[in-house]
Amino acid sequence: MTLTRRLFPLAFIALVGCTDADAGGGGSLDPERQPATQQAPAPAEGQAVAVFAGGCFWCMEKPFEKIDGVVEVTSGYAGGEVKGPSYKEVGGGATTHIEAIHVLYEPEKVSYARLIEVFWHNIDPTQSSGQFCDKGHQYTTAVFTSDPTEGKLALEWKKKLTRELGAPIVTDIRPAEPFWVAEEYHQDFYKKNPDHYQRYRTGCGRDRRLQQLWGDKAGH
After folding, report:
1. Torsions phi, psi of 195, nearest 5?
2. Contacts of 35-38 spanning 24+ positions with Cβ under 8 A
3. Which residues of 96-125 are buried (b: 16+ CB within 10 A; e: fewer)?
């Protein structure tokens, strides 16, 4: 795959969103396929992991990487049964994975409660069709919880936001599942291709909608 699509005009970027032009097509998987991606390693001693799906994973890395106590943010795929899915398979609807981020952090420096707050303020939890201009199951939102405490906190947030926004919150709360690390060119895309990233983000209407929903809390 290439990044040719990032050179296309803004209107085209807004139309196709985070999916590469050659990622479509759907269809079934080759039964003899080999895994294309690797599972994320377990955290080291003194570290923990939070996994969130907020639509295009390019746009979810930066808000978390700015937080003191976050060690690393990795883009990838979660929530599906296929082992080692590729971007083309996920984007083409050949698997049930969704784009997600793997947040490796130090609980002594930053709490899970803080991380999940940042998550909510970087998504539109009322949109069931995807996120912003990106449509499809692979762009739906979810919180993958690793224990009952995380699950309880996520559900409390859903109740709180239902009252605050006056609309149903459709973000899934799901048990933790294998996280597959996306291809290298997706990692830190906003740093590697800042101009293309910003054109996509603006064209997709992400910041505009976040501001409508969250005001001063948007993107924090």
Report:
1. -70, -45
2. 35/83, 35/84, 36/84, 36/85, 36/86, 36/89, 36/183, 37/76, 37/77, 37/84, 37/85, 37/86, 37/180, 37/181, 37/182, 37/183, 38/84, 38/180, 38/181
3. ebbbbbbbbbeeeebebebbbebbbbbbbb
Q: How confident is the model at residue 11 (pLDDT cuts 50, 70, 90)?
A: very low
Q: Residue 96, CB half-sphere, CA atoms under 13 Å: how many? A: 6
The one catalytic residue in 56, 59, 133, 204 is 56
pLDDT value for 89: 95
Kindly list the structural domains of the chain, giving each domain's residue range(s) and its CATH number in brackets, ordered by start.
47-215 (3.30.1060.10)
- Secondary-structure percent of the chain, ordered helix, strand, coil, rounded to 5: 40, 20, 40
pLDDT classification of 32: cutoffs 50, 70, 90: confident
204 is a catalytic site residue: no
At residue 208, the 3 state secondary structure works out as helix
* Pairing status of strand 134-135 against strand 70-78: unpaired
Token reading at 175: 């048990």
